[in-house]
Amino acid sequence: MIVVAGEALIDLVPQDGEPESTPQAGADGGAGLPALAPRLGGGPYNTAVALGRLGSPVAFCSRVSRDAFGEALLDGLRSAGVDVTPVQRGPEPTTLAVASIGADGSAGYSFYVEGTADRLFAAPDLLPDGVRAMSFGTCSLVLEPGASAYEELMRRAAADGVCTALDPNVRAGLIPDADAYRARFKSWLPSVTLLKLSQEDADWLGGTPHEWLAAGPAAVVVTRGGDGLSLYTRDGTELRVPGEKVDVVDTIGAGDTVNAALLHGLRARDALSDGALAGLGAEGWTDVLRFAARAAALTCSRAGAEPPYAAELA
Fold it and tell me: How far is CA 185 from each of CA 82, 113, 192, rounded to the nearest angstrom?
């Protein structure tokens, strides 16, 4: 069992992936904003759905609203085969993220998070039976008081010998004190087995893969968009695989798909542990990275966070 812990929210995405720079006409005949379509999302949510579609046994640990958006989010998890037993519920509204899509398909976000359900997450006393790995990241590790609860859960899982994966997926607009967050990120590293982050995250956070490895993780994966993925391990292995060529609609959920594909590939090789990661070898890692690159490319080829099913990658 892989448990994904973090937020579930609604992405409001320009319809048909239309770039925000090409607005539609307003009711008065002038230029207006593009129409927005609601999409199920949130980095951890997307990761859980992607794992379920790939066929890994997965559970989602979060706090979700009882509103219509919250019900739709749970339905999406169940449809992907995700166990929602650990999900907490609350009467507060669902977090909203308004996406803007650039001409190259890249996504930017504005968040509406005040008083929303996921911020009141409380760390559970027990984890699901048979948990082998836990995945953390994104807004859930920023927004208090939930952030401290997720942090507690990460540290407890690591202390219990569970493989922990971290994808910081930095949303700078949500971080009031950048230096404090950077220090907090460094404090997580001793409790992290696998660190996955984008090149943009790496540039914003500062530091190098070798510095992060020295602080705790057994492996670091850096995603570089269309240029592929790079791997660094504590035993000195360094690899790079190219990205898959695809007509990009948007990049929403691509990094979350990489996260899921990495965990799925490692689980298939019984490598969800610190020691097993070190022993995977260049050939095994290359296969896992290529699989992740293919999965991310398929996600980029369609609007919104729509990770692929196992059959699409066969």
Answer: 28, 21, 10
Query: What whole-number distance in Å separates Cα of residue 68 and Cα of residue 54?
Result: 27
Q: Over the stretch 107-139, which tens digit does the pLDDT of each residue have?
A: 677 888 999 999 999 999 988 888 999 999 989
> Which DSSP symbol is given to 138?
G
Residue 52 CB neighbours (<10 A):
27
Burial (CB count within 10 angstroms: exposed 0-12, middle 13-18, buried 19+), residue 207: middle
Distances (CA, A) of 87 to 5, 71, 307: 9, 12, 21
Number of CB atoms found within 10 A of residue 151's CB: 18
Q: How far apart are CA 160 and CA 172, in angstroms?
A: 31
> Which pTM was predicted?
0.90
Confidence of residue 27 (pLDDT cuts 50, 70, 90): very low
d(CA 113, CA 68): 17
Segment holding 163, helix H or strand E: strand 163-167
Q: Is 200 exposed, middle or buried (0-12, 13-18, 19+ CB in 10 A)?
A: middle
Q: Could you read off the pLDDT of 180-209 as tens digits, one per residue?
A: 999 999 999 999 999 999 999 999 999 999
* Selection from 303, 307, 308, 309 nearest residue 107 by Cα: 303
User: Which structure tokens are listed for 77?
Assistant: 């998890």
Within 8 A by CB and 6+ apart from 25, the residues are: 31, 32
Neighbours of 150 (CB within 10 A): 24
